[in-house]
């Protein structure tokens, strides 16, 4: 990470330095024109050219340059111009001395006006100093930008290493001004989701091993007894009872595994491409009619609207309603009531029964996998996955499930948006 910081810092600093130096050089070579600076000297040469030769020196001495630019008139023979160059009238020639000073020559016919030597750029040292200060300030600004970024990237790296070491509770806390805060939030969401999945896997593994142990032990015991009861010895009835019990145990394990696979396949995520438009009341009536034959309690349906169309996964929604109805059949005394309604884009599907009141401290735990409430006696015993499946189905549809239990009524409500975009 330190190498990344140094490389990024040097890349930005050297890139800006190189670009600045290149542009400055191009400006001086192609854009910075000295013609404006040469104009006064050329104007003076034109004035001198109009004067007689004898008066030129007097006129030149009368000009007060205050020593900033020495001026003198020389004959062409007194000059050693390169390549024996001869200046025509009004022609300007500029050269540089070995000391880096500038000399300018203007042809006046029989004479040459010489200006200089003068410093080419008297503020060159100051300008160089200010240029250095500019680039140092620029480097400081880059440092102030890169340093927090490097620090946050180190935090991300340490968090990733910790998460890779099975520390599932690892989270990243970054400043609200951090440039990688969205990445940190994404990491936290990922870590939270993976941690939840791993916890669920461990919990399910423990619960399944516990749940399957009882029917498996009964099967092993029945197999041992079955060997002791042969049909020829008049034990046909006993063998039939043992075989029926074994069949029930196999069916119980098969049902448990089916529930477990359904629960594990439901991820807490939005709807998948398997969703389709349906008429909700048709689905509810079909499910109620099918479940009605499994119990003795009457199921009463009340719909606030005549038609409710929505986009959903019908098989999952039917499964959620079926789980609530079969759960209500276990505890209802006389009747079960189903209510369907649509209000402000939200659908409510409620299943109520007149069974025993559920203690408040148990209401949230009922939606945990393999949890059975205190009211679930041997007769009403299930696998403890039905309501957990309902909760996951609602989460898949961007909805929720609620539970209200007062004296004489227990009510489970499914609430989710009519449109998946909500």
Feature tags:
single chain, 422 residues, 5-stranded mixed β-sheet, 4-stranded antiparallel β-sheet, 51% helix, transmembrane, HisK_dim/P_sf
- Helix-strand sequence: HHHEEEEHHHEHEEHEEHEE
What's the overall average pLDDT, rounded? Answer: 78
CATH architecture of the domain at 276-417: 2-Layer Sandwich
Q: Find the count of extended strands (DSSP E, 2+ residues).
A: 11
Strand content: 15-25%
Helix percent band: 40-55%
Strand order in the largest sheet: 6-8-9-11-10
Structural class: alpha+beta
Shape summary: rod-shaped
Q: What distance separates the N and C termini?
A: 42 Å
User: What count of helical segments does DSSP give?
Assistant: 9
Low-confidence stretches: none
Could you characterize the architecture of this molecule?
It is a multi-pass membrane protein. Pfam families: HATPase_c, HisKA. InterPro entries: 2C_sensor_his_kinase, HAMP_dom, HATPase_C_sf, HATPase_dom, His_kinase_dom, HisK_dim/P_dom, HisK_dim/P_sf, Sig_transdc_His_kin-like_C. It comes from Shewanella salipaludis. By secondary structure, this protein is of the alpha+beta class. Among the domains are: about 35-120, no CATH class; about 210-265; about 275-415, Histidine kinase-like ATPase, C-terminal domain (Heat Shock Protein 90). The protein contains nine helices and eleven strands. The protein has helices spanning about 1-30, 35-50, 55-60, 125-165, 180-225, 235-265, 280-290, 315-330, 385-395, and strands at about 70-75, 90-95, 100-105, 110-120, 275-280, 300-305, 310, 335-345, 345-355, 400-405, 410-415. Strands 6-8-9-11-10 form a five-stranded mixed beta sheet. It has a four-stranded antiparallel beta sheet with strand order 1-4-3-2. It has a two-stranded antiparallel sheet with strand order 5-7. Strand 10 and strand 11 (about 410-415) form a beta hairpin. Helix 1 packs antiparallel against helix 4. The chain is rod-shaped and about 155 Å long. The mean pLDDT is about 80.
């Amino acid at each position: 990470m330190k190498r990344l910081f140094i490389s990024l810092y040097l890349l930005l600093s050297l890139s800006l330095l190189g670009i600045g130096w290149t542009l400055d050089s191009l400006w001086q070579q192609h854009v910075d024109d000295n013609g404006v600076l040469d104009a006064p000297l050329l104007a003076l040469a034109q004035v001198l050219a109009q004067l007689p030769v004898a008066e030129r020196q007097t006129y030149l001495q009368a000009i007060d340059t205050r020593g900033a630019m020495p001026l003198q008139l020389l004959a062409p023979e007194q000059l050693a111009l390169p390549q024996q160059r001869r200046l025509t009238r009004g022609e300007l020639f500029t050269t540089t001395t070995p000391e880096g000073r500038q000399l300018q020559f203007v042809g006046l016919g029989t004479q040459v006006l010489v200006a200089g030597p003068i410093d080419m750029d008297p503020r060159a040292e100051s300008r160089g100093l200010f240029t250095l200060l500019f680039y140092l300030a620029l480097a400081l600004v880059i440092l102030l930008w890169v340093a927090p970024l490097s620090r946050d990237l180190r935090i991300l790296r340490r968090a990733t290493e910790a998460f890779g070491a099975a520390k599932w509770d690892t989270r990243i806390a970054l400043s609200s001004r951090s440039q990688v805060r969205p990445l940190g939030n994404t990491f936290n969401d990922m870590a939270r989701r993976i941690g939840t999945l791993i916890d669920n896997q461990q919990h399910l593994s423990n619960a399944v091993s516990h749940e399957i142990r009882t029917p498996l032990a009964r099967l092993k015991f029945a197999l041992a007894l079955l060997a002791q009861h042969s049909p020829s010895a008049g034990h046909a009835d006993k063998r039939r009872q043992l075989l029926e019990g074994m069949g029930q145990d196999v069916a119980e394990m098969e049902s448990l595994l089916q529930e477990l696979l359904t629960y594990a396949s439901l991820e807490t995520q939005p709807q998948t491409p398997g969703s389709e438009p349906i008429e909700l009341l048709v689905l509810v009536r079909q499910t109620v009619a099918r479940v009605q034959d499994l119990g003795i309690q009457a199921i009463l349906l009340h719909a606030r609207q005549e038609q409710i169309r929505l986009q959903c996964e019908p098989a999952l929604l039917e499964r959620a309603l079926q789980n609530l109805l079969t759960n209500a059949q276990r505890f209802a005394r006389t009747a079960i009531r189903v209510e369907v309604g649509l209000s402000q884009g939200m659908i409510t599907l409620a299943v109520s029964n007149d069974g025993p009141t559920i203690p408040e401290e148990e209401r949230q735990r009922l939606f945990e996998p393999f949890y059975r409430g205190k009211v679930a006696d041997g007769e009403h015993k299930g696998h403890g996955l039905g309501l957990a499946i309902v909760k996951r189905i609602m989460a898949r549809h961007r909805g929720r499930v609620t539970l209200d239990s007062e004296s004489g009524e227990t009510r489970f409500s499914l609430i989710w948006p009519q449109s998946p975009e909500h």
